[in-house]
Amino acid sequence: MNDVKLITRYLLKHIERIIDEIDTFEADVFINEIAKSKRIFTYGAGRSGLVAKAFAMRLMHLGKTVYIIGDIITPAITKDDCIVLISGSGETLSVINTAKVAKQIGSKILSITSYRNSTLAKLSDHVVIIKGRTKLDGETDYFIRQIVGEYKSLAPLGTLFELATMIFLDAVIARLMDILKVTEEDMKSRHATIE
């Protein structure tokens, strides 16, 4: 399976299955918390961090006050703020440490992870589970997967989690547009003019 179109179809098929498994109630709580939050902070490490930044950008386009943890202009988080943390494994040390600090301050912690029993999930006030192969999933069952036709090696490390999370968060933005009565024109007016 070395044709890029076949690999793309494989990824899309698995992402659709992952999205189907997202709990609607969990998603609605996540959306409502974001909608009512005055200030939102986002964070993830590696590619999950890129997804967190993309989500922050769209929240800014919606007119929300949003910060990316780690940027030098990010202010102190307070008990009145909401933090969105993304980690497929739920065990990424920098994400866990961020959650611990937010917990001590009393901030609302929303997380997206693949593991309900992860350290991140346990530290969070609300969790959305998005399944997907993460970097923790081993290669020990390689031969079994090849026999049954599962080519997870085509989605290395956290690819399926990150892609599914990005699609989910774009859907969250679409839902928030409706809730907050924000038009695409409103969002365009906040788009960067210097890039």
What is the helix tally?
A: 8
Provide the number of structural domains. 1
In the predicted model, the low-confidence regions spanning at least 5 consecutive residues are 138-151
Supply Rg: 17 Å
The backbone outline, from C-alpha atoms, is: globular
Q: Average pLDDT value? A: 88
Report the β-strand fraction as a percent range.
Answer: 5-15%
* Spatial sequence of strands, sheet with the most strands: 2-1-3-4-5
Major sheet characteristics: 5 strands, parallel
CATH topology description: Rossmann fold
Q: What's the helix and strand layout?
A:
Layout: H1 4-20, H2 24-36, E1 39-44, H3 46-62, E2 65-68, E3 82-86, H4 93-105, E4 108-113, H5 119-123, E5 126-129, H6 142-148, H7 159-180, H8 184-189
Parallel strand pairs: 1-2, 1-3, 3-4, 4-5
Helix pairs in contact: 1-7, 2-7, 3-7
Q: Can you characterise this structure?
A:
- This protein is of the alpha/beta class.
- It has one domain: 3-Layer(aba) Sandwich (Rossmann fold).
- Helices cover 51% and strands 13% of the residues.
- The protein has eight helices and five strands; from the N terminus they run H-H-E-H-E-E-H-E-H-E-H-H-H.
- Strand 1, helix 3 and strand 2 (65-68) form a beta-alpha-beta unit.
- Residues 138-151 have low confidence and may be disordered.
